[in-house]
Each structure stands twice: as structure tokens, then as C-alpha cells.
């Protein structure tokens, strides 16, 4: 899906075509971490021991297609890292897949751990800073069967996994994100409640309800597929993990309770304690899914409540972290009735939310008012078929990041999402975020886009 407005936005890039102009645009220092990000399940392929793999293969699956071999990054990571380096980028954020490391509870796979250490070593050999995420949405299937992210025992399980992995990373990795988008479960809970209330009062056909819910799913920054047989999918998913009640299923990307939210924070604190104990030189933090929240007259209270839920109530758990990973793709607007579409929106992305690149700078500035550690943009990007639109987005987003640095904010890095076109969770392979296209029909051939080189040109 490419909107006509994306084509219009692409024309803004005409003034950046010459190499001379691109060199003048370099806006980040040599030491600034300028890179791209991936998540293991979305790029590696054949993650057969994870909760996602099971859900992708159900009769009534919410996934538009299974991940399969994904984009074969597991076998092709060297090629991908070299493309990143050759474009001028100096950092790569990627995740370690817990389900590979501990496929059965208490049983660890040293060979799989070795694979990730080889990735770290290859990055270092190329002069690329590896930034490692320990948990990026997907979990071992056994963890979900025993209660998942609503079970207090998950904290100890995560701590055990981190304690196993950490010694191999010590002395090699300088930055670790414990948990990706630690607030995602609460965001999904709020989304589902809002959707259910809307649907109960709406005289719509099932098709119209599904379309309305899919549009509303753009409120969360993850690939959610809303379909008319959601109840059948929920029942199948619950049964696959041994539950009769779908509400008992607690994957990381399912609606979470207040108690479940606290379990995620406890898991982060436990992981941080292990890292500080075994490798105190490593800078540790987590990442949060954040929006640029804007209020029209009458919407101020809604925006403030949303910010408290999305960010402020996590401060007691992260205030002693070394850095915060800020992940922002767009804005959300509010008026006296609550969340509304932006009145001046021009174009939208494949994901359904507004193309609004300067949101990231606004979020960094607001976060810095309360969080006083370093800031890293661990994800920011756009899903679009038009790479000229992607370049405009990167230009405007990084311009807003550079402005924050000029104001004295401690922003240490920017990671575009994503290095590769990949498996966008329940939305499958149709969402194209990548700086590199992958031909999955012809041997997973890589085709770097112009946006990759453009991003690399922004570092001096």
C-alpha cells in the first residue's frame, strides 16, 4: 500500500540528490552510534522453539503468514553487517533469541550461544558497535506454557537465562538492552479495551469492524493483524499452550495486567543486577515504545494520562539505568473526546499510522525532562514501498535528533528500523521498513536501497 501522498512527500528529497549536498548534511560525530536494528525472530528464520512459531502455524492464526526462513539472517549475518558497514554505519542493534539459547526449560544450547558471540565478534572485527537486546518480543514456548509474562516465576527464569549468556558477552559488548518495548503489554491492554468499547457501540458488519479495528491497531507500534475471527484465533492460541481460557495466555505481545506489567519491570531489574554483578562495565537499559503525544484544546488531560501510562510510571524502575532506548515512529493526537486522527495529517505509512518523522525529536526532548541518563534512539523508521519517502523520513527524523543534541541532550545513538525488509510479526512480509530489500523468491538476494547509503552519509 503506497498512498499518493507518499509520492508527493518524496519530491522533498530532490534538493538532496548531489553527493556534495549529502556531505554537507553530515550531522553526527564520528563517535555517535549511527546504525540500524533487527530482531532475531523477524530476520533469522526457523525459530522453532518460540511461542511465535507455534502461533504462526495454527489453523486460525492471526498471522497473515508464517515466518519460515524469514530472511535467512541467521546464515547471512556477515553479508548484512558488511553492507551496513560499507554504507558508513558504525553500529548494529540485534537481539539474542532466548528460545534458541534455552529451547527446553533448564536446558541450554552452547552452540546457539556461540552463534551470537560469533555475530558480536564479526561486528567488532568490522569496527561496528554491537548493541545487544536480550529479549525482543518472542519467548520460549515452554515459558508461555507455564504462565508466561503473568507468572512471577518468569522473573527467575529470565534472570537464569541472562546469567547464562552474560559471561560470553562480557568484555565484548558495551551496551545491552534487557527488554524491548517493556511497556508493550500495557499498551496492548489499553488498545483492546478501547476497541471492545468502540465495537460494542458500533452498528457495523463483521468486515467493517475488522477494518475499523485494524486502523485502530496503528496506535501501537507493532505489527498487529485484526481479523473477523479473532476469537477463533484466540481460542486456538490458548489451546496450543494448554489453556482453555484465552485470557490466561500471556505472551509478551498480548494484553497485560498491572501485575504482569510489574513482572516485566522485575525481570528488567533482575537482569540489570546480573549485568552489574558480572560485567559492570556494560551500559544497561531497556527500550520503551513511545509516541509524540499532542493535544488539541480540551485534549490535554487525555494526553497527560497517556504519557503517564506510557512513560512516567516506569521511571522508578529505570531511573538508575545507564541509558533509555527510545522507540518512536509517529504521533498521537487528542481532543476533548480522546484519541483522534491528526487534523493536519498529510500521508500515512503501510502500517496505518501517520508519516510524522519529527515525532522522535519531540519524544527525546520530553523524556529528557524526567530521565537523566543517556538516550539512544533504538528504533525509528517507516514502512513504505517508496524509498524516496524513506529518505525524506530519515532526513527529517535525524534532523530532529541532531537538534536535540545541539540543545545539550545526551543522545548517544540513532538506530533506524530496520536494516532489512523482514517479518513484521502478525502483518507478515508485506510491511517494508528495510534499508535493504530481500528477494525471498530468489535465494534471499540482498538489494541495498539508496536510503541505506543516505543514512550512512549523515555521520562525519
Key structural traits:
TIM Barrel; GH; hydrolase; about 450 residues; nine-stranded parallel β-sheet; alpha/beta; about 40% helix; Glyco_hydro_1; 18 helices; Glycosyl hydrolase, family 1; three-stranded mixed β-sheet; beta-glucosidase activity
Q: Indicate the percent of residues in helices.
A: 40-55%
Number of DSSP helical runs: 18
Describe the strand arrangement of the main beta sheet, using strand numbers: 5-4-3-2-1-12-11-8-6
Q: What is the CATH architecture annotation? A: Alpha-Beta Barrel
Rg to the nearest angstrom?
21 Å
What is the number of strand segments? 14
Q: Give the termini separation.
A: 35 Å
Q: Which fold does the CATH topology refer to?
A: TIM Barrel
GO molecular function: beta-glucosidase activity
Protein name: Glycosyl hydrolase, family 1
Keywords: Glycosidase, Hydrolase
Organism: Shuttleworthella satelles DSM 14600
Explain how this protein is built:
With 460 residues, this protein is an alpha/beta fold. It has a single domain (4-455), classed as Alpha-Beta Barrel (TIM Barrel). Helix content is 41%, strand content 14%. The strands form three sheets. The protein has a nine-stranded parallel beta sheet with strand order 5-4-3-2-1-12-11-8-6. The longest helix is centred in the middle third of the chain and has 21 residues, at 258-278. Residues 1-24 have low confidence and may be disordered.
Amino acid at each position: 500500500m503506497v498512498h499518493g501522498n507518499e509520492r508527493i512527500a518524496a519530491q522533498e528529497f530532490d534538493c538532496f540528490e548531489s553527493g556534495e549536498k549529502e556531505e554537507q548534511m553530515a550531522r553526527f560525530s564520528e563517535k555517535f552510534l549511527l546504525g540500524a536494528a533487527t530482531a532475531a525472530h523477524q530476520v533469522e528464520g526457523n525459530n522453532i522453539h518460540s511461542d511465535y512459531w507455534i502461533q504462526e502455524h495454527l489453523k486460525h492464526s492471526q498471522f497473515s503468514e508464517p515466518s519460515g526462513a524469514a530472511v535467512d539472517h541467521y546464515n547471512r549475518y556477515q553479508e548484512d553487517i558488511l553492507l551496513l558497514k560499507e554504507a558508513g554505519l558504525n553500529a548494529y542493534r540485534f537481539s539474542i533469541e532466548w528460545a534458541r539459547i534455552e529451547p527446553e526449560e533448564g536446558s541450554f544450547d552452547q552452540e546457539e550461544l556461540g552463534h551470537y558471540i560469533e555475530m558480536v565478534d564479526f561486528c567488532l572485527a568490522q569496527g561496528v558497535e554491537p548493541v545487544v537486546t536480550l529479549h525482543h518480543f518472542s519467548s520460549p514456548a515452554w515459558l508461555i506454557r507455564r504462565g508466561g509474562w503473568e507468572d512471577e516465576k518468569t522473573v527467575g527464569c529470565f534472570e537464569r537465562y541472562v546469567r547464562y549468556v552474560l559471561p560470553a558477552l562480557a568484555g565484548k559488548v558495551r551496551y545491552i538492552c534487557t527488554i524491548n518495548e517493556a511497556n508493550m503489554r500495557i499498551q496492548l491492554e489499553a488498545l483492546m479495551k478501547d476497541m471492545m468499547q468502540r465495537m460494542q457501540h458500533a452498528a457495523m458488519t463483521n468486515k467493517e469492524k475488522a477494518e475499523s479495528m485494524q486502523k485502530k491497531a496503528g496506535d501501537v507500534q507493532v505489527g498487529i493483524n485484526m481479523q473477523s475471527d479473532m476469537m477463533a484465533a484466540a481460542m486456538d492460541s490458548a489451546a496450543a499452550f494448554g489453556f482453555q481460557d484465552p485470557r490466561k495466555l500471556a505472551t509478551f505481545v498480548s494484553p497485560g495486567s498491572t501485575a504482569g506489567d510489574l513482572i516485566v519491570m522485575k525481570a528488567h531489574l533482575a537482569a540489570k543486577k546480573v549485568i552489574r554483578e558480572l560485567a559492570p562495565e556494560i551500559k544497561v537499559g531497556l527500550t520503551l515504545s513511545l509516541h509524540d503525544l499532542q493535544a488539541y484544546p480540551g485534549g490535554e488531560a487525555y494526553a497527560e494520562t497517556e504519557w503517564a501510562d506510557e512513560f512516567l510510571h516506569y521511571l522508578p524502575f529505570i531511573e538508575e539505568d545507564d541509558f533509555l532506548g527510545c522507540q518512536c515512529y509517529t504521533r498521537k493526537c487528542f481532543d476533548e473526546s480522546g484519541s483522534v486522527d491528526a487534523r493536519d495529517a498529510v500521508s500515512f505509512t503501510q502500517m496505518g499510522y501517520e508519516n510524522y518523522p519529527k515525532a522522535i525529536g519531540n519524544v527525546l526532548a520530553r523524556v529528557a525532562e524526567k530521565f537523566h541518563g543517556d538516550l539512544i534512539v533504538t528504533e525509528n523508521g517507516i514502512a513504505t514501498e517508496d524509498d524516496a519517502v524513506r529518505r525524506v523520513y530519515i532526513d527529517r527524523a535525524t534532523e530532529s535528533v541532531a537538534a536535540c543534541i545541539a540543545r545539550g541532550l545526551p543522545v548517544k545513538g540513532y538506530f533506524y528500523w530496520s536494516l532489512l525488509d523482514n517479518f513484521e510479526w502478525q502483518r507478515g512480509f508485506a510491511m517494508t521498513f528495510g534499508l535493504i530489500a530481500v528477494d525471498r523468491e530468489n535465494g534471499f538476494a540482498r538489494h541495498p536501497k539508496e536510503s541505506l547509503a543516505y543514512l550512512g552519509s549523515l555521520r562525519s
